[in-house]
UniProtKB/TrEMBL annotation:
<keyword id="KW-0418">Kinase</keyword>
<keyword id="KW-0963">Cytoplasm</keyword>
<dbReference type="InterPro" id="IPR001564">
    <property type="entry name" value="Nucleoside_diP_kinase"/>
</dbReference>
<keyword id="KW-0597">Phosphoprotein</keyword>
<dbReference type="GO" id="GO:0004550">
    <property type="term" value="F:nucleoside diphosphate kinase activity"/>
</dbReference>
<feature type="binding site">
    <location>
        <position position="91"/>
    </location>
    <ligand>
        <name>ATP</name>
    </ligand>
</feature>
<comment type="function">
    <text>Major role in the synthesis of nucleoside triphosphates other than ATP. The ATP gamma phosphate is transferred to the NDP beta phosphate via a ping-pong mechanism, using a phosphorylated active-site intermediate.</text>
</comment>
<dbReference type="InterPro" id="IPR034907">
    <property type="entry name" value="NDK-like_dom"/>
</dbReference>
<keyword id="KW-0067">ATP-binding</keyword>
<protein>
    <recommendedName>
        <fullName>Nucleoside diphosphate kinase</fullName>
        <ecNumber>2.7.4.6</ecNumber>
    </recommendedName>
</protein>
<feature type="binding site">
    <location>
        <position position="57"/>
    </location>
    <ligand>
        <name>ATP</name>
    </ligand>
</feature>
<feature type="binding site">
    <location>
        <position position="102"/>
    </location>
    <ligand>
        <name>ATP</name>
    </ligand>
</feature>
<comment type="subunit">
    <text>Homotetramer.</text>
</comment>
<comment type="similarity">
    <text>Belongs to the NDK family.</text>
</comment>
<keyword id="KW-0546">Nucleotide metabolism</keyword>
<feature type="active site" description="Pros-phosphohistidine intermediate">
    <location>
        <position position="115"/>
    </location>
</feature>
<dbReference type="InterPro" id="IPR036850">
    <property type="entry name" value="NDK-like_dom_sf"/>
</dbReference>
Length: 137
């Protein structure tokens, strides 16, 4: 069993995709062990995307992710980190495989509907950033 951090980004929430995405998670069989809709404080967003601090798109990225409510989700399941990334598809929707969330719904690299941790280290770091002690089942 593995845990990962998933997030529905502001574009996904704004477009009413939350039920569709939760439905896909449920059909896949992952257990939702944490769930909340929230506005991201700027400090949390900057910490979350810390690895991209020096990239030219960092400011835009933080503006986007703090620009509306997100849905933070903690998932548990076998191979959940890779499995959830596979369900999302490639970062750039133009390269995302058919049937993935990004192929079906994302409009651009910057607004790509969902997030998923990319390694066990990221998953642990991001779960701790978004969920406090006692918030996870
Ligand atoms: P995240 O789930 O947001 O981390 O996306 P993913 O891991 O698939 O992709 P990475 B490489 O981590 O991108 C993080 C965010 O930065 C955006 N981005 C990325 C750009 O806007 N331009 C770029 O050239 C690149 C490489 C896409 C991701 N986010 N959002 N939202
Ligand atoms: Mg990433």
């Amino acid at each position: 069993m593995e845990r990962t951090f998933a997030m529905i980004k502001p574009d996904g929430v704004r477009r009413g995709l939350t039920p569709e995405i939760l439905s896909r998670i449920q059909k896949k069989g992952y257990r939702v062990v944490g769930l909340k809709q929230m506005m991201l404080p700027r400090e949390t967003a900057e910490a979350h995307y810390g690895e991209h601090k020096e990239r030219p798109f960092f400011g835009e990225l933080v503006d986007f992710i703090t620009g509306g409510p997100v849905v933070a989700i903690a998932l548990e399941g076998e191979n959940a980190i890779e499995g959830w990334r596979a369900m999302m598809g490639a970062t750039n929707p133009a390269n995302a495989a058919p049937g993935t969330i990004r192929a079906d719904f994302a409009t651009s690299v910057g607004e790509n509907v969902t997030h998923g941790s990319d390694s066990p280290e990221s998953a642990q770091r991001e779960l701790a950033l978004f969920f406090g002690n006692g918030e996870l089942l």
